Design the sequence.
């Protein structure tokens, strides 16, 4: 876990930066009389270091120099499935925020996202998006409700230091699930650390179990053309994933004692050097360094092993959206910010270079492996634009960078995604805490329960 002292120092530093920004905003903004639109935008999760806020402050200054009628106010923000609906209903979200692909369909169908079709078309890059990605924010009538801004593929993250301490070659990570198990056992025996860990709570257990299922050739849900969906949780891929976790926990004793990890806590444990390997999105390196204090030299990334008749790699990402409660002036300002802050660095050479240079000078990660929301060609061209400013150890990510294009991308289940993930959390937790867990019975019950939700 991250030490309380580090959290306190980071929090004080961040608070000082925010306070300074707030002081500037107060001086610049006297309310409606100065004609500025006050725009609240999502920044970082609580605990981000001061350098992250310094980088944001620099970008805020650049934006406001170009758009003198908009006053940007950064707001701490972290998406969490169980609490998001409450925040949305309570009006406590920023004017601009991000949501995962998994929730975009449900939110737009519920009228909880702002329609931005006309604005995207006016900006002129509707046709530039990967159509599979754009589909996640498009309704049945072709209206668009957000800007896809970042995508990722699932990756296997590993600690190079623990590999070396265990006598393993950090430049030769495992390529099969059997090897992952062997490496995990060796790491645990040689170092006393968890050789492998996996998320299990706050819907992340279901998310990662779905990822493992896809990697083993299974699927947890199938969709019909009429909009209905069928739960297929009870399949050989999911069964193999659960048997793998059970074996690590109770046969090899290489899973470790923490079986209640979610996205934030597993990142903390990994950054602290307490976990040898875990799976998560390929883009998590930025948060590991920025928010959790990971030493870059200890990081390694490879692709998730695949096996079975129809294996794939679960992908995901998030979209930048506008709160449905804002007025037209704030909506226009929000779209201007999203275009400037998120999109232009993907499309325009000068914008990409400015963004990379600003982040680099503030000590923020530049060059973390992602999947393109636009074309692969434009993504690879943009890496050339920013090459002088790339500061992430991409040579330590070579196993992922070289192999990810050979894997088949698979999107997350589209219907009742987070609700089904929550159901699967319980399955994962049971397998990790009950040595006598009946995996077949758990799968059969989960499939029945998930289908009931899909039929609602």
Sequence:
């Amino acid at each position: 876990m991250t030490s309380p002292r580090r959290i306190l120092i980071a929090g004080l530093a961040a608070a000082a930066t925010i306070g300074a920004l707030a002081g500037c905003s107060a001086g610049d903004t006297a309310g409606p009389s100065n004609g500025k639109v006050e725009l609240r935008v999502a920044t970082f999760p609580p605990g981000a270091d001061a350098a992250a806020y310094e980088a944001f402050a620099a970008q805020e200054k650049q934006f406001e120099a170009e758009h003198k009628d908009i006053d940007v106010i950064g707001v701490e923000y972290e998406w969490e499935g169980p609490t998001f609906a409450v925040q949305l209903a309570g009006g406590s979200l920023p004017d601009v925020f991000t949501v995962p692909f998994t929730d975009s369909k449900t939110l737009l169908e519920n009228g909880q996202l702002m329609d931005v079709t006309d604005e995207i078309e006016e900006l002129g890059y509707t046709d530039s998006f990967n159509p599979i990605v754009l589909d996640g924010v498009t309704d049945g009538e072709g209206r668009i409700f957000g800007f896809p801004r970042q995508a990722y593929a699932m990756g296997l993250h590993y600690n190079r230091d623990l590999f070396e301490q265990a006598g393993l070659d950090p430049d030769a990570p495992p390529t099969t699930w059997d090897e992952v198990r062997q490496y995990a056992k060796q790491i645990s025996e040689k170092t006393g650390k968890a050789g492998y860990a996996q998320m299990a709570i706050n819907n992340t257990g279901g998310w990662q179990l779905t990822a493992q299922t896809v990697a083993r050739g299974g699927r947890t849900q199938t969709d019909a053309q009429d909009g209905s969906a069928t739960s297929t949780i009870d399949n050989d891929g999911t069964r193999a994933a659960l048997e793998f976790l059970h074996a690590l926990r109770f046969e090899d004793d290489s899973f470790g004692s923490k079986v209640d990890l979610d996205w934030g806590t597993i990142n903390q444990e990994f950054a602290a050097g307490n976990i040898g390997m875990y799976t998560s999105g390929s883009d998590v390196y930025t948060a590991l360094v920025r928010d959790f204090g990971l030493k870059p030299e200890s990081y390694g990334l490879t692709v998730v092993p695949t096996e079975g008749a129809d294996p794939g790699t679960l992908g995901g990402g998030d979209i930048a959206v506008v709160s449905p409660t804002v007025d037209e002036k704030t909506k226009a300002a929000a779209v201007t910010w999203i275009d400037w802050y998120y999109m232009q660095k993907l499309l325009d050479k000068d914008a990409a270079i400015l963004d990379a240079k600003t982040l680099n000078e503030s000590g923020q990660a530049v060059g973390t492996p992602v999947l393109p929301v636009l074309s692969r060609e434009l993504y690879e061209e943009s890496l050339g634009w920013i090459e002088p400013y790339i500061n992430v150890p991409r040579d330590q990510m070579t196993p992922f960078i070289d192999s990810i294009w050979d894997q088949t991308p698979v999107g997350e289940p589209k219907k009742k995604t987070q609700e089904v993930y929550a159901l699967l959390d319980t399955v994962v937790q049971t397998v990790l805490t009950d040595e006598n867990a009946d995996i077949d019975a758990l799968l059969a019950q989960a499939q029945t329960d998930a289908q009931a939700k899909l039929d609602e």
Observations:
- The chain has 18 helices and ten strands.
